[in-house]
Amino acid sequence: MVKKQPILRFARVGNRVITALLRTGIKLNGLGYPMYLLTVRGRKSGLLRTTPIVVLMRQNEYYLGSPYGMVDWVRNLRAAREATLTRGRRTETFTARELSPKEAAPVLKEAFKKDNPFVRSYGVTPQSSLEEFERAAMTHPFFHLQRTS
Q: What domain of life (predicted)?
């Protein structure tokens, strides 16, 4: 069962500030990982929804993980299976595939090596076993993004 954690007030305010900065073209990094604006079509309204997000990079591949569990951007991405990432003035379109916990565990474990603050809410440590990372990925959806031509 995927859990939904409430997003704290300071995170909501921080998201607004980060969104404004990213829209102006300022490139931000979350301790070595680039921050992007993720835009996904809403599953109910059909309107475009945008949220700032840290993109995990592994072997030149893009990955998205949800540190807050089942949140709206996750539900929308599951339904739309397509999103755009914007960083500065560059926008790219991607197709998204949700990863199984077994596929997500190595990506998540590698993210811990760079001490990314966003992965702390997964309930594991850098010394955790791969099985513990798999359990964390069960409650925190993870996606692989592939560029569309």
A: Bacteria
- In angstroms, the CA 27 to CA 81 distance is 25
C-alpha count within 13 angstroms, C-beta hemisphere, residue 136:
25
Which distant-in-sequence residues (6+ apart) come within 8 Å of 60 by Cβ? none
Q: What digits encode the pLDDT tens for the residues 82-106?
A: 999 998 888 999 999 999 999 999 9
What is the pLDDT, as a whole number, of residue 111?
A: 80
Degrees, nearest 5: CA angle 27-67-61: 55
What 2-5 contacts at long range (C-beta under 8 Å, 24+ apart), as own/partner pairs, is 2/69, 2/70, 2/138, 2/139, 2/140, 2/141, 3/69, 3/70, 3/139, 4/68, 4/69, 4/70, 4/71, 5/68, 5/69, 5/121
Residues 6 or more apart in contact with residue 57 via CB below 8 angstroms: 33, 34, 63
- What's the half-sphere exposure (Cβ side, CA atoms, 13 Å) at 135? 8
Domains of the chain: 9-147 (2.30.110.10)
